[in-house]
Specification:
The complex is a heterodimer of chains A (about 325) and B (about 300). With about 325 residues, chain A is mostly helical. Chain A is built from 13 helices and no strands. In chain A, helix 5 packs across helix 8, helix 5 crosses helix 11 and helix 12 runs antiparallel to helix 13. The longest helix of chain A is centred in the middle third of the chain and has 36 residues. The mean pLDDT of chain A is about 80. Chain B is mainly alpha-helical and about 300 residues long. Helix content of chain B is about 75%, strand content about 0%. Chain B is built from 13 helices and no strands. Chain B is elongated. Chain B starts with 5 loop residues before the first helix and ends with a helix. The relative contact order of chain B is 0.15. The N terminus of chain B is likely disordered. Classes of the chains: A mainly alpha (about 325), B mainly alpha (about 300). At the A-B interface, helix 1, helix 6, helix 7, helix 8 and helix 11 of A face helix 1, helix 6, helix 7, helix 11 and helix 12 of B.
Chain lengths: ~325, ~300
């Protein structure tokens, strides 16, 4: 078991390192002229600079060194928690992100709760209801929910709840009322995906012998489904937690821009449009780390939650 | 499905493809028939034409593609012609999608914008398909360490959410339709690679491959004549599904402002520009939005129907 845990942790670290390498390669090797890119981000026109000034600027951003040296320099910085310096704002990236992260965390958390509610309710009803056509509609709903572009969901919500009914503020971040629509926009997508997975595993679970036993014992259909069905069906759904978290993070880019919220998502949009390379790299690494850590935790917790699965028999 | 669920999509694809296995006997049986593969194709087409939802979805996709190539057929107007006296008209017979703040016909602008988005989608799918197929075949065919290296690389790409990966590429390369297509295309490679690999691994062990090898065919010949034709089905289904995903991704990126610069009218750009007038003129954002969503719905439905047909 200890061996498995160590191996799994090392694997996660290797994936993170490789993700860093890929992101670094894209950001530092692809552009034809990195210094022009970074100076443009800082608001300087490269054509007006003398060669000496240009060289000074290169030295400032560390671009005068060979790419490999830069690579290890940044990698070392990341390992020490130093995310570099934002080019546009000239303050540490960690500080830029620190200012904005609480708003995104709150949004993601609320969106996560709403998504779980939507997902379980839909899956529970789709399994419980017997009328064929209602069941058909309920099972089709998540697939449709998952294929509506998020910016459109957001626009419909704004149009209806902000402009027609005047119930909620259309943009900004004043209190919980402005949190409702962005959270629901994200949750409609993630909840739909959760519902799809839950429905599939409900299908599987409800055919198991212990369900028949529970019914034979005299429990009602609803109770069996809730106490025996849902608990078992929820386990496979755990495996897509990493995907759900990743989706929530990327959803925040479109959603925060759309609802004019100040968070990591809108920071990403800003950083890409101003080509603030260190900020983009840091955000990519945070997202990748989140994905890898969530998957690691789920993998390690799974045998504790479901004793039927042991790592001795599982191929890693 | 939105932008970045390649991992989820993968799982979905793998799960959905599991019951697809045909036994060698069935395959051989179908070869015995005089009609052979073409007979199957005709039967499949007859079966499909009896599904009204599928036909509607297919017609809508065809309409969008044709109108992107020949927008003049479906609209008399010019996309950039302004008519200030006709500004901000709500949708009507004369202006199907209404007009914008300087009186440009929105329907015409959407149709002329189709060309850009369709081109970007086609490019993205081509990149994903070619690179994904190659990686998947090499991985599944050669196995051992080659397989291990390629699949680990795929795992790494999947650990970066695909919209973020696309944005990383755009940061480095710049804005425009082509960079967006490239960014989205690179993001869908892992899905194609995994599906292709799974199919190649499945087909590789079937008796007819063994028979072909035993009768002296070279590996290359077996690959081209037997393995490829029998593994492309699920890959094609994934390609249709990914076209929908790519359209959402491309529209999202141009919605964020990274698409072709104005006055060209990519769908996402139109939707984003219309947001400023959402209070008074809802149609400026919502009509193009619904147009895009219907296209994604249609592609998803086609992909799902084809998947069911393969079983």
């Amino acid at each position: 078991m200890t061996r498995y845990v160590i191996g799994r942790v090392l694997q996660a670290i290797a994936v993170l390192w490789a993700a860093y390498t890929v992101a670094f390669a894209v950001l530092y090797l692809l552009p034809s002229n990195p210094i022009a890119l970074q100076l443009a981000a800082a608001g300087v026109d490269t054509t007006t600079l003398t060669p000496a000034q240009l060289h000074l600027a290169e030295a400032k951003f560390g671009l005068d060194k060979p790419v490999l040296v830069q690579y290890f320099h940044h990698l070392g910085g990341f390992l020490h928690g130093n995310l570099g310096t934002s080019i546009t704002q000239d303050i540490p990236v960690a500080q830029v992100i620190g200012h904005r992260i609480s708003s995104t965390l709150l949004l993601s958390l609320v969106a996560g709760v709403v998504a779980v509610l939507i997902g379980t309710t839909l899956a529970y009803l789709a399994t419980y209801v017997r009328a064929r056509w209602i069941r058909l509609i309920l099972t089709r709903l998540p697939a449709s929910g998952a294929s509506v572009p998020q910016f459109l969901t957001g626009l419909f919500l704004i149009q209806f709840f902000a402009f027609r009914l005047n119930w909620l503020p259309s943009t900004g971040q004043q209190g919980w009322r402005s949190l409702v629509m962005p959270a629901v926009t994200i949750a409609l997508l993630t909840g739909s995906i959760l519902a799809q997975v839950l429905m599939r595993s409900f299908d599987e679970v409800m055919r198991q012998p212990y369900i028949v036993t529970a019914r034979a014992k005299g429990l009602s259909r609803g109770a069996v489904q809730l106490r025996h069905g849902l608990r078992n069906a929820a386990l496979p759904a755990l495996t897509i937690l990493g995907v759900i978290v990743g989706l929530t993070v990327t959803s925040s880019i479109v959603v925060e821009t759309e609802f004019s919220r100040q968070g990591i998502g809108s920071l990403t949009q800003d950083a890409v449009s101003t080509q603030d390379v260190p900020v983009v790299l840091a955000i990519v690494m945070i997202a990748a780390a989140l994905f890898v850590v969530v998957n690691l935790v789920v993998d390690l917790l799974y045998p504790l939650l479901d004793p039927r699965i042991s790592h001795h028999t599982k191929a890693v | 499905m939105s932008v970045d669920s390649s991992a989820a999509r993968d799982d979905v694809a793998v799960l959905a493809l599991a019951p697809l296995e045909r036994t060698a006997d069935e395959v051989l049986d179908s070869r015995h028939l005089e009609t052979g593969r073409h007979g199957n194709l005709v039967a499949a087409l007859v079966q499909l034409s009896r599904k009204p939802a599928f036909v509607v979805a297919l017609l809508y996709v065809l309409f969008v593609v044709v109108s992107a190539l020949l927008p003049g057929w479906f609209s008399n107007g010019q996309p950039y012609a302004t008519h200030p006296t006709d500004a901000m008209r709500s949708p009507s017979i004369h202006h199907l999608f209404g007009t914008d703040e300087i009186g440009r016909d929105l329907w015409t602008r959407v149709l002329y914008g189709s060309a850009l988005t369709i081109k970007a989608t086609a490019t993205a799918i081509a990149i994903g398909l070619v690179a994904g197929l190659t990686l998947g075949i090499v991985s599944g065919f050669f196995g051992r360490w080659v397989d291990a290296v390629i699949m680990r690389l795929v795992d790494v790409l999947l650990s970066i959410p695909s919209l973020l990966f696309a944005l990383t590429i755009i940061t480095a390369v710049g804005y425009g339709t082509l960079p967006v297509a490239l960014a989205v295309g690179l993001g869908i490679i892992p899905g194609f690679a995994r599906t292709t690999r799974a199919e190649v691994l499945r087909v590789k062990t079937l008796p007819y491959v063994e028979a072909a090898r035993a009768s002296g065919a070279s590996w290359i010949r077996v690959l081209v004549r037997h393995i490829l034709p029998n593994s492309w089905g699920p890959v094609a289904v994934l390609a249709v599904l990914d076209a929908g995903v790519a359209i959402i991704a491309i529209a999202s990126l141009s919605f964020l402002g990274f698409g072709a610069p104005p006055p060209s009218s990519e769908w996402g750009t139109l939707i984003s520009a219309g947001r400023d007038f959402l209070v008074t003129s809802w149609w400026l954002s919502l009509m193009p939005g619904i147009f895009v969503t219907l296209l994604v719905f249609s592609l998803n439905h086609i992909s799902k129907t084809l998947q069911e047909l393969e079983r």
